[in-house]
# Entry
Amino acid sequence: MVEARKYRVFTLRNFAKVPQVQQYLTPEQLHDIEVVGNVLPFKVNNYVIDELIDWTNIPHDPIFQLTFPQREMLSAAHYREMEKALSQDLSKAELKLVANKIRYELNPHPDGQQHNVPMLDDTKLTGIQHKYRETVLFFPSNSQTCHAYCTFCFRWPQFVGIDELKFAMKETDLLVEYLRRHPEVTDVLFTGGDPMVMSAKKMRAYIEPLLEADLPNLRTIRIGTKSLAYWPYKFLTDKDADEMIALFEEITERGYHLAFMAHFNNPVELKTEAVRQAIKRIIATGAQIRTQSPVMKHINDRPADWKEMWLEQVKLGCIPYYMFVARDTGAQDYFAVELERIWDIYHKAYQQVSGIARTVRGPSMSTNPGKVQILGINEINNKKVFTLRFIQGRQPSWVNKPFFAKFDPDAIWLDDLEPAFAPEFFYEQSSALKNISLN
Ligand SMILES: *Cc1c(COP(=O)(O)O)cnc(C)c1O
Ligand code: SF4
# Structure
């Protein structure tokens, strides 16, 4: 049995009181956290601190890197700018101006993030994104936070308040109506932040109307969440844990596929008794847990990390699903791994697991035209190339066709790549673009 744990959250305001912080961090490290944490979001909880971080391995510990701001996450110039502002006894509003100026220089809106807001008659559905034909993303207004914040998070502008997401009233009614009018949609993906910060009661208020609408096209309800890694007690001992589990059972009993899209970034997150029990409990409802993570320097950039994650996940009954390339936003320079090396990590890890764990797809870049997978590095006509393909595309017809980019050892994102044998990538040709519907 896992003992209940009371959720305690730490931010810039109170983190210096954490015993481990006092014992293991130097005054310089505290200062760095203060400076960087005034620009990028910072939030951590007692489970992460007590069970996941190995405090004898600071600063290299992957979960410390995942949750605590590090000096090098800002450029030297940005760091000095914020540091200077903090030393000047400025008002809160003045500090925020400095922070926001820096934030806007960190590419807060990498491609594709601001598009895809669909319409229902004259209403803009700001809580919905519909980029790929079968799947609609739904951002419940009550899930715009997380149990802790990842230092690499691409949703960081929401958490620091420079993207005020505006939500529609009666958002669930609008979602149901949208699904009714879009019979091509089979999957709804609840995302955020983290929908699993919501109470069971709030979650039920979203799910029930969906179930009651009895939409013939709806097959899969997905929940994108980091809660298993950051707060497994959500499904074990929190006061509404049983209610949440009962809600999952209701979804599967009604004949829907409930897919838990769980974010795990490092094998450590799979090792506590709490996470193992939580996984068991969720799977027992008939749900399936699929896993995903980006490849990040300092967190999981060795083949052994991935091999171990996939093996552990399979052993615990989860299905490895996606390996992503880090997006070009926020502290990307700190975390970015060259595409060549990411391919190598994937390739080496994939070789070492049995077919059961080879359900994982990657390495994949979520770009404006679609999810682009690196299939390999090849030589064609004496030319070294990246072989790529879409695993998801704005145009369904783009999916699965291999295409080629010039090899570039420094490339970290699709933008850095050039077509190998043509003036443009096939999806950039005007005939391809002409047909794009942005909804
Ligand atoms: C990845 C993704 C999906 C889901 O794609 P699947 O391949 O079906 O998992 C849906 N919408 C967006 C915007 C995505 O990035
Ligand atoms: S859990 Fe997901 S949304 Fe939340 S901070 Fe981490 S990456 Fe961002």
